[in-house]
Design brief:
The structure holds two protein chains of two kinds. Chain A is mainly beta. Chain A is 1% helix and 52% strand. Chain B is 1% helix and 53% strand. In chain B, the strands form five sheets. Chain B has a four-stranded antiparallel β-sheet. In chain B, strands 2-3-4-5 form a four-stranded antiparallel β-sheet, with no helix packed on it. Classes of the chains: A mainly beta, B mainly beta. At the A-B interface, strand 8 and strand 11 of A face strand 8 and strand 11 of B.
Chain lengths: 319, 320
Amino acid sequence: MNWKKLGKVFDPSRHRLPDGCTAFAQSPQAVVFDDFVRIYFSTRAVDPANGKYLSHVAFVDMCKNLREVLRVSDSPVIPLGGLGCFDEHGIFPMHVMRHNGLLYGYTCGWSRRVSVSVETGIGLAISRDGGLTFQRIGPGPVLSASLHEPCLVGDGFVLHIGSLFHMWYIFGTGWKRFSEGTPPDRTYKIGHATSSDGIRWTKEEARQIVPDRLGNDESQALPTVIAISGRYHMFFCYRQSFDFRSNRERGYRIGHAWSDDLVQWTRDDEHPALECTAGDWDSEMTCYPNVFECEGRVYLLYNGNEFGRHGFGLAVLEA
Amino acid sequence: MFKWQKLGKVFTPQAVEGRSWLKEFAQAPSTLVFDDFVRVYFSCRPAPDAQGRYVSHSAFVDLDRRNLFEVLRVSEQPILPLGGLGEFDEFGTYPVTVIRDGRDVRAYYAGWTRCESVPFNVGIGLAVSRDDGVTFVKAGRGPVLPYSPDEPFVLSGPKVRRFGGIWYLWYIAGNKWKLVDDKPEPVYKIRMARSVDGVAWEPLGKDLIESRIEPDEAQASPDVLEANGKYHMFFCYRYSSHFRGKQFGYRIGYASSNNLIDWVRDDHRAGIDVSEQGWDEEMVAYPHVFDLDGKTYMAYLGNQVGRHGFGLAVLDGTLA
């Protein structure tokens, strides 16, 4: 299997975005409709209170050839959480899946802290209007920190397999100040939880399901899972836990693992591999993958340089 | 009918010397009875930092079982360390509730972290002692009771009990940050969760006690005793705004139940109110009720929510 790159397909600077957002189209998440593919992404506005970023969810509808933009959402898809809520300062990403004729949006909510920059949790919001707007099932998260997952539960990706919901997500293993004079950085790993209703989840508490390639300080994010020819494939991104923002050698790359039983995962980043392309929009990093099937083809949406400031691109799987 | 006969203040944190982490406050008393003494856990604070921010620790004082006004010793150290960087209990472990579990002592405690848009968030942790409650080891670095869709923040004030082999945790869950003079103040209500092992909890998912004084009434410290075929809950409540003085501050309420789920509130029967004058003339708060040597006692806080210590009252009459 190989990824054939199809280039950048969405550039946020070329469109008018809702919620006063001006840049970033991060963590694209596809939902296939009859006549188009809707791709949710997180974009950013500036908080007038302090100049910090607020992440908002928007979407772009594309033709099923994934080349032409049909429209960009012009009103909020989901408002940010209320004062003191886990998703007050951003939703990034929101993974959307179909269930029982509804669309379930699993949000990763962000709220700011004092000693560290942020805490996250996973919420659930449901759409009854075909994905134009989503309403929370409650103001709190469905998955958050627990006894052995002390912080930063987020990035939920959900599949309904048999009679069970499976969620792959990330949990923080801790914050650390890696060098004097720099803010603390966090490390997170990919975990797994199951549920019979998509709301009440049972975690495999603190079991890291994908082995590290870079050692203990590897951070793993954005798991996305698809079945291809009877085998489950997971794509995710990984990086060093510090000095990863501008140091190309330490930044995000796309990883891969496969499983036949959804329990044991074998890491194999090279098959298929997604390399950075020198001189192109993804020359420095590749991150925030989302795999989906459309018209018999398997596609990978992902972000490139600067964590998706300039948009997202696409690759197609070749057997 | 019953009422509480006040016995006076038993512990004054300002009187303790040689502990930089214990300068003031002795909040949310919780007892563990030994042969010769009653160990009362409480939460205290060192002096605030340069920006006026506090951290809180939990510790204990041992009272002579034959004379509860005789202080035998005060713990040399806090019973728990603060949490690590970015953990839920980085800036406080307050309050704490203790219970024996075989030869162990378990503590459920609220951990505090600092937030940007609101001053704090709180979660409930678990720690275990194997030395009769002198030191505790955390069961994990995260909370034992995660936030959930209808319990979004400020899970605090745990009170643990076991009835019929089931673990019960009463606690409070925030449902709103209310802006009062542009400052966020939390509104919280009494909740309950059950567990077969005290680790995996099943929240009941509803407010147990109807609000009485206003819809945004804040409720805290739900402590439950079984007596005479019923369950009796003592708790405290306050207004949502300007509650740091007498007029809108904490009072102690009462509710009873036959099944631990459906509660009938009747504050007129609480049997305790603020005093005409003295250390509890402005508020009475954070009740903890316990049986000892044929009597039932209430430990509680007075003015400024325990800044100057806690007191005791003894039950006069029958819980029925």
